[in-house]
Amino acid sequence: MSAKWQDFRTKVAQCLCPPGNGVFTVNTAQERKAALQQKLYGQTDNIEALWQASLDGLQTTEHKAVMLGISSDCGGGILRGANWGPLFLRNTLIEQQPQAQAFDLGDVRVIPHLLHDKYLNEGTISNCQKALYADTDSEYHVSPLSITEDVCTDFYANFPEKGIFGIGGDHSISYPLTKAYLKAKREQGKKVAIIHFDAHTDLLVERLGIDLCFGSWCTHILEYLPSPAHLIQFGIRSSGKPKSHWEGTFGVKQHWAHEINERGTDAVVAEVLAQLRADGVDELYVSFDIDALDSEFASATGTPEKDGLNPQQALDILGALAAEFPITGADMMEIAPFTDSSLEGKSSSETTLREGAKISAFLLEQMNK
User: Fold this and answer.
1) Is the distance from CB of 287 to CB of 330 less than 8 angstroms?
2) What is the span of the domain harbouring residue 333?
3) pLDDT score for 305
4) Distance between CA atoms of residues 136 and 9, nearest Å
5) Phi, psi (rounded to 5 degrees) for 286
6) Which residue in 218, 202, 212 sits closest to 75, CA to CA?
7) Which of 18, 185, 320, 363 fits 51 for a cystine, CB–CB 3.0-4.6 Å?
């Protein structure tokens, strides 16, 4: 066992917890947690020890897709509840998409009122290290974005041929997921693009003084891309500024929902494929905010928006891209199962989870190829 692997395994055992346990509670959703653990481990007691023992399987698993839950919604702030996404989506995947396979690394241990360590003073960090690790001088981070980046960076150093499938949580989590991925791919000499499905651009520089949040994460990963045009966005429709502003200011490429609906997915995808070929892109990372889908299909989310994509359009776009370019990293964000803002019962959290699971299953299948 290499020293590098042993250090990573120790870090995972400290900074993560069993799948579904990322939200610290006494009673809330305990039945759902127990159901997930029964499916994963065949029992509901002694889960910590079983999960710890399972970590050694990461070295031998045939799956290239490795699942990581980040139960944090502190970077959202409009309508909370996406912290339950990792637990609920895992259960839905097992129940409705049993063919979807991945090695489950577990959940980041989330202190729910923290976002990133850079926002904390030394006293707070020390107190949180005591709470998480029983050590006020621990070497490990305490905030979900910081922990996620640290764990993912070491993951890619140990397993360059595997990829993380992140489950959120609010979309701020995609910042550390994509940052670690992009830095690793750059070291491997791979040219990559991020395919971003969302109702919103997420291209603010900051929101209410916070620079790393659900509305700004894209802005801060552009520097790690080979070109800003390698951030390609689908489904945009809720924006205070026109498409020309975002493309002209940041150099990204956008395909708004109305364009896809008016032109058809084939025409839009043909344009994107031509761009990717011309730019010599090798691999893709897909970040999927569930609100890219029309609120008819995705109401259980913090910011549902009408006039969006339907699930088949999203799958058609992904299928066409995956036919030519390998998807080697991905995430599913902003599913808030206890939240359903639909009117007159037109949609439900079950619908949101069902559609999110379908898309997640497709992404996992592609990552395992």
Assistant:
1) yes
2) 3-368
3) 94
4) 21
5) -110, 120
6) 212
7) 18
pTM of the model: 0.96
Q: Which helix (H) or strand (E) holds 48?
A: helix 47-54
Coil vs helix vs strand at 197: strand
3-class SS at 348?
A: coil
Residue 227 in tokens: 């070109």
Domain tally, the chain = 1
Place of tokens 């029964």: 38
Question: Which domain CATH number covers 52?
Answer: 3.40.800.10
pLDDT attached to residue 342: 60
Given a contact cutoff of 8 angstroms between Cβ atoms, the answer to whether 167 and 90 are in contact is: yes
The total number of residues shown for the chain amounts to 369
Host H or E run for residue 16? strand 16-17
Q: Pick from 194, 198, 159: which is nearest to 65 by CA?
A: 159
Cα distance between residue 147 and residue 163, in whole Å: 17
Cross-strand pairs, 108: 16
Question: Mean pLDDT across the stretch 55-77?
Answer: 95
> What pLDDT band is residue 345 in, cutting at 50, 70 and 90?
low
The SS3 of residue 14 is: helix
> Which residue, among 2, 368, 9, 284, has the nearest Cα to 154 in the 3D structure?
9
Has residue 2 got a pLDDT over 80? no
User: What average pLDDT does the structure give for the chain?
Assistant: 95
DSSP 334: -
* Res 29: pLDDT: 85
If we measure between CA atoms, which residue out of 148, 182, 179, 154 comes closest to residue 166? Answer: 148
Measured at the alpha carbon of residue 362, what is the angle toward residues 62 and 323, in degrees to the nearest 5? 90
Give the Cα separation of 238 and 308 in Å (integer): 10
Cβ pair 58, 16 in contact under 8 A: no
Q: Max alpha carbon distance in the chain (Å)?
A: 57
- Report the number of secondary-structure helices (H) and strands (E) in the chain: 12, 9
The arithmetic mean of pLDDT across residues 302-321, rounded, is: 97
